[in-house]
């Protein structure tokens, strides 16, 4: 079914002091890929890209982000979260490239998957490639299930299991 497939591209070249804020939300679909390529070409440019995906069943969602720091004093943030169940697959491929002239770069990358059962998959490939000496860059990726202690806490306060799980899923996605 072609209506359940989507492929988006975003190509951005940023000048000095430019600001970019981008958020994508993917809710189901058969095959969805969101791709972004961003070049921070001017000093003090800032790019914040975030995404949230919720998939159920025959769902493959891929966020691919490549940010190039080519100028000094720039900042980038990538925060991508996926909630998956019943065979859904989520993919995150993110790269921060810091070229030699891009001193004082501040780059951050986070990808997380919340797996609501054992049939789903979260595949992550975070990357840093750094050629400058004075940078602050980090990346992290995790996958896991709902925290049973958090669920217990909500249930002990009279919240039924279904709504309690929904609250925890929303709290997980909120950072994106």
Question: How would you characterize this protein structure?
Answer:
Helices cover 13% and strands 58% of the residues. It is mainly beta. Helix 1 crosses helix 2 (161-174). The mean pLDDT is 95.
Structure described in brief:
Helices cover 13% and strands 58% of the residues. With 176 residues, it is mainly beta. The longest helix is centred in the last third of the chain and has 14 residues, at 161-174.
Beta content comes to: over 45%
DSSP summary: helix tally: 2
What's the helix-strand series? EEEEEEEEEEHH
Shape: elongated
In angstroms, what separates the terminal alpha carbons?
29 Å
Total strand count, please?
10
* Overall radius of gyration: 18 Å
Q: Taking strands numbered 1, 2, ... along the chain, how are they ordered across the largest sheet?
A: 1-3-5-7-9
- Overall pLDDT metric: 95
Which ranges are low-confidence, i.e. pLDDT below 50, for 5 or more consecutive residues?
none
How can the largest sheet be summarized? 5 strands, parallel
Give the structural class: mainly beta
Query: Helicity level, as a percent range?
Result: 10-25%
């Amino acid at each position: 079914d072609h209506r359940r497939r989507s492929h988006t591209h975003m190509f951005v070249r940023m000048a000095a002091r430019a600001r970019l804020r981008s958020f994508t939300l993917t809710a189901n679909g058969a095959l969805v890929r969101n791709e972004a390529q961003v070049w921070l070409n001017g000093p003090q440019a800032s790019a914040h890209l975030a995404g949230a995906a919720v998939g159920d069943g025959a769902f493959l969602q891929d966020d691919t982000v490549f940010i190039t720091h080519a100028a000094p004093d720039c900042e980038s943030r990538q925060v991508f979260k996926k909630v998956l169940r019943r065979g859904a697959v989520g993919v995150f491929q993110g790269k921060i490239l810091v070229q030699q002239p891009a001193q004082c770069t501040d780059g951050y990358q986070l990808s997380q998957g919340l797996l609501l059962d054992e049939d789903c998959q979260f595949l992550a490939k975070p990357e840093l490639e750094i050629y400058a000496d004075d940078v602050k860059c980090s990346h992290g990726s995790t996958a896991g299930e709902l925290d049973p202690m958090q669920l217990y806490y909500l249930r002990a306060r009279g919240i039924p299991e279904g709504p309690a799980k929904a609250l925890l899923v929303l709290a997980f996605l909120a950072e994106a």
